[in-house]
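Board notes (copied after class):
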Amino acid sequence: MVYSLKEKRKNIGLFLINTVIIFCVFGLFVFSKHYSSDDFFCCYDQMGEANAVIFSSYRICLGVIYIILSYLKINVVTYQILFGVLMLICFSASVTLITITINNIISIQEGTITDFSLLAINIGSLMLIINVFISEWVWFSLGYIQWGLSVLFSTLAAVYLIRNEIKDYVLTFFFLFLAAGCYQISISIYVFVVMLFITCNEKGKISKNAIKYTVKAAIPAILSILGNMLCTKLLVAFGVGYSGSRADFGIQQILEKLCMLLKNEKVLWNTGLGLLPKYFMCIICGAYIFLLIYLIITGRFKWNILAVLVTLLAGIAVMCMPVVLQESFYQPARMIVPITGVFMVLHIVIIVGMRNKKKVLQCAVVIGIVYLGVNIVEIQRNTVDCIITCALEKKEAEDIVKYIQNYEMENNCIVENIAFLPDEHPVYKYTNEIANWGYGGEMASRSILVDWSNIQLFNFYSGNNYNKSFDNVKDYVSEKKNYEYFSPNEQIYIENGTAYIYIY
C-alpha cells in the first residue's frame, strides 16, 4: 500500500506514541539491571545456553544469535539494557503494525476512519503487550532478544499474509520460521493477529475467502515449527549437538496434561495466576461479551459471532499446544502471554464492527483503559518485587563471601569450593519483602536455590572463581532445622577448602 505524506506522518506519530507508552510501562524494569537464575548461568556460559535452546527447545534462530554474539564477545546479560531497549522497540513496532494494518483494511473497504477510532483500535493492540504476564519475560534479561524478535516476526508474518501475494506468502513462512526459532509460544500471537485480520477483512463473515485465508495462514505456521524441529534433528544426525528434546508425544501423557491444563485455566481466569486481582480477567472479558450480546440483541452488530469465536479458540488452542506436548506439565506466566489476544480480539472486533457508533466506541475504550490501567499497576508491582529480590540476593551473597574472606584471613587458608544444601522448607522467594510472592513461577525467585546458577551468583558478585562442590553439608548442621533467616555463623561451615552453606 502506498502511503501519502499525511498518512506516513500519522503512522510515525502512532509509533512514537506507542514507544513512549511502552517505555513508561516497562522502562523501570529494563533500565534497572537485574538477574534471574538463567541470567547468572548465561553470564558465564552463553554458548552453553545456545546449545540448550537449540537442542532442548528447538529454537534454532535464538541459538544462532547467541553463538554469533558469543564470537563477537557480546553477552546478552551484560548488555541487558541495550537489548531491553531493542525489545521494547520491537514491541512498539508490533503494536503499531497491528493498528496500521487494521486501519488499512477498513480504509480499503469504506474509506478513512476517524482519529478516535484509530486510537481506540490502538488501545486493543496495546493489550497484546501491556499485560502483567509479560513481566516474567522482562525478568529474564537473557531472553530480551527472543521476546522482542518473536513478537515482531509473528506480527510481520500476519501482516504479509493478509497482503495475499505469492512473494508475501513466502515472507510469511520466513518470518514464522524465525519466530518459532526464537520462541514457539509466539506462534499463537501470530494466530490471534492473523485471524483478527481475516475477520476484519471479511467483515465478520464466514465466507469461502475467509476459509481460504485461514488455511493459508495455518500451513506456514505448522511448517515453521516442523522446520525448526527438522533442522535440529539434522544437526544431531550430523553429529552437531545432542539429542535433548523436552517434548513428549505420548497419547496418555497428552491426555493427562490436558486435564491439568483445564484445571490451570480455571486458576488463570479466576486469579490471573496470582498476578491480577481476583476475577479481574473474567470481569473484563465478561464486560466485552455483555457489550457484544447487547449489540447483537439490538440488531446493531452484524458480524457472525461464530467467526469471532473461532478466532479466539484458535489462538487459545495454539497457545496451549506447547504446554501439553512438553515433557512435564508447566504453564508459568511467560507461557500464557498470548492469552491477552482474547482481550485484543474482543476489543478490536467491537471497535471495527461498530466504529460509527460513538457511544459503543466509548464503552469499549473505557473497558480497554481499565484493563491497561490495572495491568500497568501490577507490572510496576512486579518490577519493584524483582528489584527488591535482586538487592536482597546481592546482599546475601556478599555477606556469605565476606564471611568466607574473613575466615580465610583468620585461618590463613583459601576456600575454593562452595557446597549448597536447602533446609527442610526452603523459601524460594523473599515472602516478607515482596508483594506477589504467592505467584508460583520463577519471577522474583531466589537464584541461590537453583542448581544451575547458585555458584555463578557468588562468582558474579564476588569476582572470584569458586567451584561448586556436590558434597553434603557436614553433620554439624541438622537437616531438620527450618530457618527463616540467614545467619553466617549458624549456616556456614568451612573445612578443607570448602564452604558448606545451609540455605533457608
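Comment from the instructor: Residues 358-411 form the longest helix (54 residues). The chain has 18 helices and four strands.
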